[in-house]
Amino acid sequence: MNLTFYNTLTHKKEEFKPIDEKLVKMYSCGPTVYSYAHIGNFRTYIFMDTLRRVLKYNGYKLKHVMNITDVGHLESDADEGEDKMEKAARKENKNPYEIANYYMNIFLEDMEKLHIDRPEIITKATDNIPQMIEYVKDIIKNGYAYETSKGIYFDISKLDKYPVLSNRELDDQIAGARVEVDPEKRNPYDFALWIKAPENHIMKWESPWGLSYPGWHLECSAMGRRFLGEEFDIHTGGIDHIPTHHENEIAQAKGATGKIPAKYWMHCEYLQVDGGKMSKSLGNTYTVSYLQEKGIHPLAFKLFCFTAHYRNKLNFTFDGAYGAQKALERLYDSYIKHLNGNEVVEDSKINEYKEKFMDYINDDMNMTGAMSVVWEVARNEKKSKKLAELLLDFDKVLGLDIKNSPKYLNEFSKNKNISLEDIPDEIKKLIEERNDARLNKDWAKSDELRKVIASKGYSIKDTKEGIIVTKNI
Ligand code: AMP
Ligand code: ZN
Q1: Which of 268, 303, 338 is where one domain is finished?
Q2: 240 CB within 6 A, ligand 1
Q3: Using omega within 30 degrees of 0 as the cis cutoff, is the peptide bond preceding 163 cis?
Q4: Among 73, 251, 315, 385, which residue's Cβ finds the most Cβ atoms within 10 Å?
């Protein structure tokens, strides 16, 4: 089956045909490193990783760029508020460069924990300032930008069409973004390319427009052109990038080069928590390390992400994540059983599995379909080394490190079946409360308490001999 992807630009699934037959050039919007990345962010980077792996599985080589935003991302995507880096620096009483390095390193560690392959080029915005200045100059030269007392603005009215990615009407966009109309702007939806720095702004550079700093959208345009050229194949990001960030990136590229920079624009839907938004105020912006503390291995979270198509919302719950943890254990266990098996499985059966798997991944990365094939192979009654090899082959796309299954199973079992004295007092108290509830036949309360206990990383099983407590890893 041909490789197809849904293209946000054309609003349909299209056959993938790269500009260069063998080498795919791809750009992914990376994190803004002012805080810890949360599991929602990582759903988008897992999607990016799977895309890389699917392309490689299809025989392509990759030149993939991911940026690290360490300047210019204001609190609102629509040029309002403070630079997120400067705000974090003030709050933590550090310099913004220290903040950026600290959170970038943790982000890269988390990527490794999730076995997200590193893009060939990772580049920080602050390492691309001359390229960004050149980009603004090109836009001005072509008549698409103008200067105000606040900075250099892109003149949207000069474009043939805006927006091009979203079907939104501009009036909605303005109302949605609640943009304060700046009287110096020619059109309310013009956006800042380059921002003149206030006196106390730490990150600022000499430029033809005085001491100033880049707007967030500009960095991706300039870095894309620097490393991949004016036209490349794929551009990825989260769904929230569609209405503003990617629209503006396209506008900038049209202004500077007259071209839309990427042929295929791909976006990952949101991860929700308990059916709602992830937000700091709700305290549910969980990190990868937090999941680990709760007994959920990062690769179990990756497996959890494969339970929905990347263009559908995915709802994170701890119950779901513990389910994924158990499923990961079952997958590793099946691999070992196949590896030790000597039963005969026909080559035709192996090819059939392989074809089905390929059809799913090549159909706009249908990972739920692909996982159904993985589970068929894992659960095959016949235990065969050929099936173990097949799982390793599929793992080139999954990135679940199946070859190290024994190591993980060992790690998981060590933390299980803990003795009574190792159970923290808080959990013991909850178990006692649950026992009382059960004695009182208050099943609702007992269920509720089991969930609370689970959310703290422990599972309980009621047996004839009493309760067995296990730690979830
Ligand atoms: P940021 O660091 O805020 O620029 O976000 C990094 C990436 O995570 C972007 O591609 C966002 O679109 C994406 N993102 C943010 N929140 C979520 C979420 N809840 N689910 C999936 N992706 C998200
Ligand atoms: Zn970007």
Answers
A1: 268
A2: yes
A3: yes
A4: 251
Query: Which ligand does the CA of 269 lie closest to?
Result: 1
Quick check: CB of 44 below 6 Å from ligand 1?
Answer: yes
Using a 10 angstrom Cβ sphere, with 0-12 exposed, 13-18 middle and 19 or more buried, the burial of residue 122 is: middle
Of the candidates 413, 431, 448, which is a domain's last residue?
413
Residue 362 CB less than 6 A away from ligand 1: no
Dist CA 173 CA 451 (whole Å): 41
Which CATH number fits the domain that encloses residue 128? 3.40.50.620
Cα–Cα nearest to 370, from 52, 4, 54: 54
Distance 29 CA to ligand 2 centre (A): 4
pLDDT digits (tens, 9 = 90+) for 358-393: 999 999 999 999 999 999 999 999 999 999 999 999
pLDDT digits (tens, 9 = 90+) for 100-154: 999 999 999 999 999 999 999 999 999 999 999 999 999 999 999 999 999 999 9
Chain CA centroid to CA 304, Å: 13
Which residue minimizes the CA distance to atom 6 of ligand 1? 31
Largest CA distance in the chain: 80
Q: Residue holding tokens 């990062």?
A: 298
Whose alpha carbon is nearest atom 15 of ligand 1? 41
Residue nearest atom 23 of ligand 1, based on CA coordinates: 41
* Binding site membership of 40 for ligand 1 (Cβ less than 6 Å): yes
Question: Distance between CA 402 and CA 388 in Å, rounded?
Answer: 9
Please, what is the end-to-end C-alpha distance for the chain in angstroms?
Answer: 39
* Count of the separate structural domains present in the chain: 3
Based on the fold, state whether residues 340 and 392 are members of the same structural domain: yes
Check if the beta carbon of residue 28 is closer than 8 Å to that of residue 122: no
Phi/psi of residue 178, nearest 5 degrees: 45, 55
Q: How far apart are the C-alpha atoms of 333 and 269, rounded to whole Å?
A: 31
User: What is the pTM (predicted TM-score) of this model?
Assistant: 0.88
Both 93 and 204 in one domain: the answer is: yes
Q: Which ligand is nearest to the CA of 74?
A: 1
271 CB near ligand 1 (under 6 Å):
yes
In the block, which residue shows the tokens 């303005």? 174
243 within ligand 1 shell (Cβ under 6 A): no
238 in contact with ligand 1, CB cutoff 6 A: yes
For residues 118 and 23, membership in a common domain is answered with yes
> Collapsing DSSP states into helix, strand and coil, what is residue 104?
helix
Any idea which residue has 């309760």 for tokens? 467
Give residue 355's domain range: 273-413
